[in-house]
Amino acid sequence: MSVHFRVETNSDLPPELLFRRSLSVDEHVASMAASGERAVGGVTAGQIAAGQTVTWKARHFCVRFSMTSLVTEVDHPRRFMDHQVKGPFSSFHHIHTFMPSAAGTLMVDEIAFAAPCGMLGRIAERLFLARYLRRLIIRRNEFLCRPR
Fold it and tell me: Given this model, what pLDDT does residue 63 score?
């Protein structure tokens, strides 16, 4: 069993720019500074592409962990997908979609994840993990949408 959620973010920036920022390891690190997230393996700077991995080290809930993500599909500048190949979740899949809108861009993040540890993991998913991950995505998107 897994948790699914969707985050929609409207931006006045063009889809191409948000797409590039979303595939930037540097932008991700900057957006996650509060958790001390950093890239330590695979692509550690610049743009990541289909078939490439990045290994993140971070601190969430006062626990340090690492997670390796693989970019499985890139449809420039409309959509890309990544998923965890090694890390704290039983499964973690993320679809990023960028649609032109009257204002600029509608970014849609679709997340599906499952926590380990059987019933305890399912309880954690419902009690706090889903809300926490949703807030992380919202903060990340707010950072990516800032004009610079």
Answer: 86
Under a CB-based contact definition with an 8 Å cutoff, are residues 68 and 86 in contact? yes
pLDDT tens per residue across span 35-82 = 899 999 999 999 999 999 999 999 988 889 999 999 999 999 999 999
86-94 own/partner pairs: CB under 8 Å, 24+ apart = 86/55, 88/116, 89/113, 89/114, 89/115, 89/116, 90/2, 90/114, 90/115, 90/116, 90/121, 91/2, 92/67, 94/69
Please tell me the distance from the alpha carbon of residue 77 to that of residue 42, in angstroms, as a whole number.
23
Average pLDDT, the chain: 95
Quote the DSSP letter at residue 78: T
Structural contact between residues 2 and 112, judged by C-beta atoms closer than 8 angstroms: yes
